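A reminder before we start the practical. When you read a complex entry, don't treat the lines as separate problems. The point of joint prediction is that each chain is placed relative to the others, so the output describes one connected object in space. Small molecules and nucleic acid strands, if listed, are placed in the same frame. In the example below there are two entries. Take a minute to note the order of the lines before looking further.
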Amino acid sequence: MLRAGQGDPAAVRALVGRKLGRVLSLAQRMLGDLAEAEDVAQDAMLRVWKQAPNWRPGAARFDTWLHRVTLNLCYDRLRKRRERPMAEPPELADPAPGADRGLIARDLGRRVDGALQALPERQREAIVLCHYQELGNIEAAALMNVSVEALESLLARGRRALRAALFDLAAEA
Amino acid sequence: MRMTAERFEALTAAFGADPSHWPAAERDAAWAFATAHDEASDVVQRAAALDRALDAAPRPAPSPMLLARVTAAAPLARSARRAWRWLTGAGIGVGLAAACAAGVAVGALYSPAVTAAFSAAAQTSDDAVAEVTGLTDDAG
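Here is the predicted structure of the whole assembly.
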């Protein structure tokens, strides 16, 4: 991080390689819109560059800080959506299960994305942080400003709703 | 920590079937429970099926354009900053300075990131460059 902040090209490339995809994934699953997620990922990385020269190791875990920055940017956009409905909301897959079992991978992904976007925001955030971003329960709860018990409740309710929405997929094991 | 069937079910209902996702404080006890109790298998299979369904949503990969934009905005190395200051301080016109800077950057660093930043500078003003790259007169 410090080397990246000093402009070391190798450190910059390494940091981008390790973190940009992770940030983009978090934003895309929170927002359900790739173009918006790319904007958020770019904004988050710009804040990394701004912060990098002053970063003090040990002051905070970088990955946690980056998740917090990205989540805040996502919530800014979600709030604006609520205040001003979009002319063209992101296209989401129909969460209703399809009859055919030969869905191609892209359609499967769209269905899962649609089911995720249909969750209440806090449940979605909990699922994204713990399942997709693979954060521990303590770290995720701290990011969400809730207790670990409340996080567990959000996760359980979110997964229950996802199982109902994707029951044909979740029963195919 | 003692693990019960109820707690194991609640754990997998919230965190799924992958032990690496289970809370660290309960992971060992939950693992021991899963391996010692046949009834845990159904619970794990149910959670694993949903995990697999969730993983059907692929992780998006950064586009080349996004990679380029983010990398071009990264802080510049000290030698590149010196080159930029020298060019702008010498009073050379913005267009000429930016064109030269691109060449200087290539020669000095052989770095795609830096050349991209300097190339961007060819199309914008000093202030805009400073805003995008974090390159200001008082920086580092």
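Discuss with your neighbour: Residues 129 and 161 of chain A are 17 Å apart (CA to CA). What might explain this?
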